[in-house]
Amino acid sequence: MSKKTYDAVALFSAGLDSLLAVKVVEAQGLAVKCLHFTSPFFGHPRRVGYWRRTHGLDVTAVDAGEAFVRMMLAGPRFGFGRFFNPCVDCKILMLTRARELMEHYGARFIITGEVVGQRPMSQRQDAMNSVRNESGTRDVLLRPLCALRQEPTPMETSGLVDRERLHGFWGRGRTAQLELARAFGITDIPTPAGGCLLTEESSAKRYAPIFATLAEPPAAHFYLANVGRQYWSGTHWLAIGRDKKSNDLLSELARPEDLVFVLQGHPGPLAVGRELAGPWAPEVVADAAAFVASFSPRAVASGEAVTVAVRQAGTQRTVSVTPARTTPLTWSEPTWADAAPVRDRMDPKNHP
Ligand code: SF4
To answer: Domain 8-197, CATH 3.30.70.20 — does that match?
Structure first.
C-alpha cells in the first residue's frame, strides 16, 4: 500500500482556532495532517481518537517534551510571559519541528490557527513575524484565519490555495470564529486554546524547584510535578496523592529508583519521593514517612505510631512513625513568590 501524502501539516493544539484553520484548508480539497504537540505542560495525546471521530481530523501526537525543556533551560530568546510560558520560542520550536516533519508527510506547507492581535505575547504582528522567520518557515507558513491581513504567501500566489476563501480575522473577539464554526457544522466547540499549564500560576510554581535544583532535568520530572500535592525540603522532593486518581497516576509515574510511600493499616495517600541529590538518609525517609502519614485523618486520629511501607528498586522496608505535619525537615509547597525569581534568572531578557 502506498503511503498517504498530504498537502499540509497543521499545528493542532485542539483549540477552536487550530480546528478552524484545518477546516478552512480542507474545504479547498487539500489533505491536512494535524500535528498535536505534547509535553508535560500541554497536549492531550489520549484525545487523538476523539478528534478523529468527532471532527474527522487526521491527527498524530508529537512528543516535544525533552526539546521543550531544553529550550527553557537554554533561556527562551524571546523571554517568558506572565508565568513560565515562553510563547514565542514555543511557537518557533513547534514550527521548526513541523518544518522537519513536512517532508515525512510529503506536505508542501504548514498551517496554524494564529489570529493577529489575539494573544498579547505570541500573536502580535511583530512576534508572528519573528516566529515565521526564526523557524525557517517564511515561504511555507499559511495562517488561514488571518491570511487576508498578511502578505500573500507562495501557496496563495501559486494558486495551490485560494486566497479568496481565506479569512482576515483580527483581535481577541470570538464572534467571527464562532460563526465560522457554525458554518462548518461544528457543534462541539473547543475552548479557545488547548490549555497550557505554563500559563497558570498554580502549575507554573510547581516547576521552579526542579529548575532551581537541577542543571538538566528530564521531562519526566515535570510530569511528576503536575500530580497531587507537591512538597520540597531543600533538594528532597515529595509528590503526595490527593485522591485515588492522583494516587494511581503517581504509581504510574514512579520510577524504580523512586521511594514510594504507602501507609499501612489506615487509608491514606500514596507518595513518591524523588532523589535528586543522592540517596536519602534513613532519618530523611522517616521524616518524609511521618509527613505523608499526616495526610491520613484516621492515622492522625489513632494517636499512635503507624507503619509506612517504603518501596524502592524492587525492595520494601517499613518505618514506624508518628504522623506529623510539622517535621524537622519543614516540608513546604512551592509558591509563585519563590518561583518568580527562578523564572527571572532563566529569562535572557534579564541578562542583556
Ligand atoms: S501558551 Fe503554552 S503551548 Fe501556547 S504558545 Fe505559550 S507556551 Fe506554547
So the answer is: no
